[in-house]
Amino acid sequence: MNDIALLDYLNEFISPERRDRFKKVLEQRTNFLTVAIEDVFQLHNTSAVIRSCEVFGVQSAHVIEGRFGERLDKNIAMGAQQWVDIHRYQDSSSCIDHLRNKGYKIIATTPNKESCLLDDFVLKEKVALFFGTEKEGLSKMVMDQADGFLKIPMVGFTESLNISVSAAILLQKLTNSLKHQNVEWELTADEKFEKQLDWTKKSIKSIDEILERYYAGN
Fold first, then answer.
1. What sign for the dihedral angle of Cα 39, 82, 59, 152?
2. Residue 194 sits in which domain range?
3. Is residue 10 domain-resident?
């Protein structure tokens, strides 16, 4: 149940400009498209992908950390992790199961010859883009489980891009095209409210004390 009274109360602690900014950003957010990052080794790569999610309006990201442990550097992410919902997993299987249960198609990003070119890829249903580790790419398990494959067209001698660069290119292209598709890509009203409340809490110093006073008086 939406706690409208709580949000109204907390809005007194932030500026009107910040409230308006939250609403404006939320109008461009989507859960129709998400990303999953599988066992990426370099901290800056995971963090940079999260930044791209935030910049291009992708509200959630899924990080598989079975091989190398936590892979998110808040300094490189530059605060983006505050505004993106990050889900962590110990293995790819549980991540895929979770996303399938949420209605996502699993799309492996790979230079595989059978991959669909980015310019030909159309978002007609919810999609989770999977990105693999720097040298090895995606695991065999993800490749076997994938519903489709996607690649960025390249015309040079080099056949691959850094994962963070690939993610930025794909997310910019797909989020832009998504808004021209006849699909319900926006967050629901409840999702917008939930995120506005969450972001408002994160913007207030001494939020625990303020919440304590609020609930004590209600």
1. negative
2. 187-218
3. no
pLDDT of res. 98: 97
pTM for the full predicted model: 0.89
What pLDDT, in 10s, does the model give residues 139-184? 999 999 999 999 998 888 777 788 889 999 999 999 999 999 899 9
Phi then psi dihedrals of residue 88, to 5 deg: -115, 145
Asked if 66 and 115 sit in the same domain, the reply is yes
